[in-house]
Amino acid sequence: MPFRRLILLCSLFLLLAQPAAEVRAELVVVVNARCGVAAMTRNEVVNIFFGRNHQYFNGIEAQPVDLPDGHPDRKRFYSLLVGKDLSEVNAYWSRQLFSGRMQPPVKVNSAEEVLKWVVSHPGGIGFVDLAKADARVRVVYELMP
Amino acid sequence: MIAKLFRPLAPLGSPGKLLLGIVASAVLSLASPAMAQSTSAFSLNGFGTFGLARTTTDDVEFVRDISQARGVGSEWSALIDSVLGLQAAWHVTPQLEAVVQATSRYRYDRTFTPDISWGFVKYNPAPNLSLRAGRLGTEFFMMADSRWVGYSILTVRPPGDFFWYLPFYSIHGADAAITVPLGESILRAKAFYGHSDGRIPLADQQWDIAGSPMVGAFLEYQYGPWLARASYANIQFKNDLPIAPVLKNALGIDLSAQDAAFLATRDTRTHYYSLGLVYDQGPWQAQLMLNHIEQGSNALQCSDGGYALLGYRIGEVTPYLGYSWVLSKARGTGPSAIAAYVMQDSRSDQQTTFAGLRWDVVRNVALKAQWDAINGDSSSLFPYRQDNRARWDGRMNVFSLTLDFVF
Q: What is the reported pLDDT for B188?
């Protein structure tokens, strides 16, 4: 809880301190505010978004949501998270898909739709600009450039 | 509050709770039109490769693996690496999925006749538990079940010294995979059982391995960019190798009953052991794989193989370098000169140095160029087709170009 408040405070501070146009907005991982997860480590986020683990520590099913290749945030997210280019991420998912192991996360077209997904799924998890993360979601991980 | 409501659903609950979960998700997905694309019931995807390869010898033919009846020689050919695959999936519920994949590639009967590579039903009773039944890909070595998806791998084809004596692709059976999160790391185990399906070419004949029981399991540990896996599998062959007709047709020799009994594969069991270590982070990709194969039949030599692969991405281009090897263990001479001749056929003793480049040209399309320098003993015949034993010196270069795509 204090962690979340701290993040909210920081985001507020960032918003107030800098003119919006110049902000190179920070990407954050958000979950449904009611899923019981307060913070995640980088490896835990990687495990969820790469389908290695399908549930949170409390047993709730994780329901990740992704963006399409054309969205600039997708490139930034995987670059910051694992240092991987999108072609490598897509190669990974083609291996999972065509071996019949699993499907990649659902893709929606915009940050607004990511938030909508996260809010409407009990285990929803996605990535958005910090500025877009509102009270309905909880920031659990910040991607440091 | 809501979290508490949902918590009882998460663990392996009673069928009633499960049903409630399915109904709830179905209602949820119907209620929100924004999520329509997420829950679209059908999906169709595909993959393919157009590949050209040639070697520097005509004394043997180079194959991708021994499921191929003929291979390539010193002329450029699209035979061994070209493939087209289509996969359809039907998401019946979030937990239940039906998948069918068809592929067309050069196969045992010297045609590109499409095959149903897999067709199965997958059911996830819990988020980290997956059960499948039907025609399934066998993952007895790491990546064995995605060998034909060129786009998914760094190299032109899986390193031969590790993979080419593995013509087994699918079973009719079932598998179960369980994932156990241990803090930040992940433990995953999978077990499968089924009856093998397929044919393996031997000269102008085919070895029918359909109905041969296959069983296996692996244990995998992932921590951040590191992945380690140990696996074991075995297959018990239902039929003998078609040695008698091959000898008759090729050399006009009759196989004696004594030799036939000595070289029998029927009811023999082959064991596959492997260890794999993968590192994948940032621009780096590294793999180290080791295998040991224990053959139950005198007609096949036991072997040890492995490979090391290192790649480093620079922008859209990933150069890579690798080394692979395989060495089989001779069994002695056998009861006759003819038996000895047959036994020589399963000999492998060679090392391959390979280097290549993967270029991710545009989204979902990769171009690759690779050079393999195979340096082996002249007795190394098992990996090849149409050998001219008198001339083959065990050394060749292989040049390959591929265009891989997914959609």
A: 97
Q: How far is A140 from chain B (nearest CA, A)?
A: 15
CB contact under 8 A, B188 and A52: yes
pLDDT in tens, B108-136: 899 999 999 999 999 999 999 999 999 99
| Domain encompassing residue B229 | 48-406
Tell me the per-residue pLDDT of B356-365, one tens digit each, with 9 for 90 and over: 999 999 999 9
B43 vs A contacts (CB less than 8 Å): 103
Cα atoms in the Cβ-side hemisphere of radius 13 Å centred on A35: 32
Residue of A nearest to B30 (CA): A120
**Total tally of structural domains belonging to chain A:** 1
Chain B neighbors of A91, CB-CB under 8 A: 151-153, 366
Amino acid in the structure at residue A4: R
What Cα–Cα distance (Å) separates residue B333 from each residue in B263, B315, B337, B341? Answer: 12, 54, 8, 9
Residue A33's domain comprises 2-142
Most distant CA pair in chain A, distance: 49
Report ipTM (2 d.p.): 0.87
C-alpha–C-alpha distance, residues A69 and A124, integer Å = 20
B316 touching A (Cβ < 8 Å): yes
